[in-house]
Amino acid sequence: MKLPKPEKNLAAYESEPRQIDAFKISMETRGFLRKTKAYTPPSDVSERFNSIVNTVFPANWEWNKELSDREKKFQLLTLCWKEFNHEIPNSMLTAMNSIGVETHNVLSTQFLKL
């Protein structure tokens, strides 16, 4: 006796979570869609940032110069974090080529809470 093939319920299949959907959710939570706290830059952000730059770098430091010294970069970002109570997201850190201009731009940008 041959048993009949069960009919596939495509509607049930479509409603089940698929592995690719789980992967997408995982990437969203690890990547650029991480929660950030709200940040409104102070009106004197430029003056305060310049003061920090002057304590970390020599007077002849160029704003557009690529920063290859990781210790100086860490020192600058740590002082900025303390001064502005604002962390720069990792996704932006990796894109920074010239630390002066790009760090100033991030600190001058308002962040909405996600």
The CATH architecture designation of the domain at 45-107 is: Orthogonal Bundle
Radius of gyration, Cα only, in angstroms?
24 Å
Question: Tally the helices: what do you get?
Answer: 6
Q: Could you give the order of the helices and strands?
A: HHHHHH
Distance between the termini: 61 Å
Structural class: mainly alpha
Largest sheet: none
The CATH topology of the domain at 45-107, please? Answer: Non-ribosomal Peptide Synthetase Peptidyl Carrier Protein, Chain A
Strand content: under 5%
User: For the residues shown, what is the average pLDDT?
Assistant: 76
| Share in helix | 40-55%
Low-confidence stretches: none
- Count of DSSP strands: 0
Q: Tell the overall outline.
A: elongated
Report the top-level CATH class of the domain at 45-107: Mainly Alpha
Summary keywords:
114 residues; elongated; single chain; mainly alpha; Non-ribosomal Peptide Synthetase Peptidyl Carrier Protein, Chain A
